[in-house]
Amino acid sequence: MGKLVILDHPVVQNKISMLRNVNTCCKEFREIAGEVASILCYEATRDVPLITAEIETPICKATVNIVTEKFGVVLILRAGMGMTGGMLNFLPNAKVGHIGVYRDPNTLRPVEYFWKLPSDSQERTILLVDPMLATGGTASASITHIKDKGVKHIKFICLISCPEGVEKLQNDHPDVDIYTAAHDPMLNDHGYIVPGLGDAGDRMFGTK
Ligand code: URA
Predict the structure, then answer these.
(1) How confident is the model over 126-178, as pLDDT tens digits?
(2) What pLDDT is recorded for position 103?
(3) What is the mean pLDDT of the chain?
(4) Integer Cα distance of 173 and 177 in angstroms
(5) Ligand 1 centre and the CA of 198: distance in Å?
(6) Which pLDDT tens digit goes with each residue over 97-122?
(7) Whose CA is nearest to atom 5 of ligand 1?
């Protein structure tokens, strides 16, 4: 079963509290979401293998550690956009993919409308980004699609998860680890995480 990694750092928790607050404006929301995304990215890449290489510093020859792994940051439109800048601050050489999936408001099931992944995705570790892991339907469908392109290593990164979404991902994709900054107790009847932070896209872009 995939790991569920919940960031328990007090400063991260404080940032999540600011995101939850209905009085946080969209400018602050975007900034904080980006900051938390960088930290989640740091945590999600902690186990990346290192190789050693011989280099020369201005002082002497040295054996140093190097990361050769290549990454792709794939965001689920539109709320994933608000986390991408933060992810790229930490992994500036990552290629970026976009997935357009929305939840049908009646069935809460994912409907796909756009896909564009890096052409060499199968050679990369893909970090799939969506702020809210709610029912897990969109995340699971997105991972299935990414795997269909031959990708072997995928990690899922969100700001807030809940038991329903985690259970769905762990059942459907036991090889995918989940990194979250908070794990909330439940979903409401409209598929929103409780207490959550509301509609992440609307909070980020000021559309409501
Ligand atoms: N999507 C959101 O933006 N918020 C939720 O709480 C659940 C899904």
Answers:
(1) 999 999 999 999 999 999 999 999 999 999 999 999 999 999 999 999 999 99
(2) 73
(3) 96
(4) 9
(5) 6
(6) 999 987 787 887 778 899 999 999 99
(7) 192
* Mutation to probe ligand 1, out of 189, 199, 202, 203 (largest number of atoms < 8 A from CB): 199
CB-neighbour burial class of residue 103 (10 A; exposed 0-12, middle 13-18, buried 19+): middle
CB atoms within 10 A of CB 97: 23
Annotate 49-76 with b (16+ C-beta within 10 A) or e (fewer).
eeeeeeeeeeeeeeeeeeeeeebbbbbb
Interval between CA 70 and ligand 1 midpoint (Å): 30
Supply the pLDDT for residue 109.
77
21 CA → ligand 1 middle, Å: 15
The Å distance, Cα 18 to ligand 1 centre, comes to: 16
Q: Which residues pair with 15 in a beta bridge?
A: none
The first and second tokens of residue 31, run together, are 């900034």
pLDDT of 38: 98
Q: Which two tokens stand for residue 116?
A: 């564009």
Please state whether beta strands 95-103 and 51-56 pair in parallel, antiparallel, or not at all (unpaired). Answer: unpaired
* Residues flanking ligand 1, CB < 6 Å: 79, 132, 134, 191-193, 196, 199-201
Taking the centre of ligand 1 as the mean of its atom positions, its distance from the CA of residue 183, in whole angstroms, is 13
